[in-house]
Amino acid sequence: MATVSITSNEGALYSASAVLEVSATNTNLEYNQPPLRIKQAGQQVGAASIRIEDRYPDIELIETDQIAPAGKYEIAV
Length: 77
Known about the structure:
Number of strands: 2
Structural class: mainly beta
Largest sheet: 2 strands, antiparallel
Strand order of the largest sheet: 1-2
Helix content: under 10%
Radius of gyration: 16 Å
Strand content: 5-15%
Shape: extended
C-alpha cells in the first residue's frame, strides 16, 4: 500500500494539464539540484524506482534549451 496517494476525479484533463506538477522557480539552482529526486533505500535488487501502469505508457523528455540538438524525445511502448 502507498504511503502517499494522490487521486484525481476531475474527469478529462486538457492535453497540457497534469494531475501533479513539480516546479522549481529558483533560476539560480546549482548544478545537480533537481526539483524532484527519488531515493530508493531498499537493499534488494529488482525494485522499480518509477512504475507506470497505463494502456499506452509514454515518457516525453522535452529539452527547453535553444542550442542544438534541443528537442523532444520519447520513450514509448
